[in-house]
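your task:
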Amino acid sequence: MLVLVVDSSTPAVTAALAEVTDRGVVMRAERRAVDAKAHGELLAPAVDAVLGEGGAHPRELGAIVAGLGPGPFTGLRVGLVTAASMGQTLGIPTYGVCSLDALGQADATGRVLAATDARRKEIYWAVYEAGARVTEPDVDLPGAVAERVAALGVGAAVGEGAHRYADVLGLPVRDEPRYPPAAALVGLAAERIRAKLPGERLTPLYLRRPDAVAAAGRKPVLR
């Protein structure tokens, strides 16, 4: 089954085409561009590009996998709206995966911290052991995370959030992955895809209120 993979939970805009079979997952094409301010402009062309490179028409897709975050409000919703709209238009199921879980699949000895940049000098984070999540996704100041992971016996970190605040976290940071790998995202959804489970509502993991909020009321006019 051909599966489209999208993730926009970080500054990296990712689109990929994968083939999920009973024997495993084969990546046919993948595009990634890093620009925190251009998710809306970059994702649709990336989807077109991976379909073209993989020799697939949208109507040949059997499912869509999307990274649910956590991530900043504006960028994250680009990927989820794209996935949900395509799923509805094509009549195919959509499956969500926590984007941190894809980072947490990185091979590491012992426990690893997966962290992405949450802006406001904070990080989204969770701890993993052998790919299994040990803590629930959260958002905190790097200093607070450093205290938590020290108590949990974490020995390494992955993700661009870990790179950005490596001096505060005090952990060895692996070069890769910096962003949620498409292969890990589809791999985490592969069992659901093979079982042809019903599609899921793509509920974003914001973990906090959006940066932009509606005005509470009209401002008084000074004369």
